[in-house]
Amino acid sequence: MRTQAGELVSLQVRRKRVKCLSPEINETEVRFISRMLTRLVGEMNATVCEQCGKCSSACPVSKMIEGFNPRRLIAKVSLGKIDELLRGDAIWTCTACLKCRERCPEDVSPYDVILILRNLAYRAGYGYPAGYDDFIEGVIGRGFISEPQAVRTRDGWKVSRGDLGLPEVSGPGDMAQFSAVVKGIIKAGRQG
Amino acid sequence: MRYALYLGCTIQSEQFGYEASVRETLPRLGVELADMEGVSCCGFPALNSVSKLGWHYLSARNLAIAENMGLAVLPLCNGCHLSFVETKHALEKDPELKNVINMNLDKEGLSYRGDVRVVHLLEALHDEVGTQKISEEVVKPLEGMKIASHPGCHAIRPSDLQKVDDAENPRKLDDLVRALGAETFDYPEKIDCCGSQLALTSGRVTLRIAGEKLQAVKSYGFDGLVTTCPFCFKMYDGRQRAIKAALKDDSLSLPVFYYTQLLGLALGLEPARLGLQMNRSPVDGLVKSVLE
Question: In chain B, what residues touch A97 (CB-CB under 8 Å)?
Answer without folding.
Answer: 153, 157, 192-193, 197
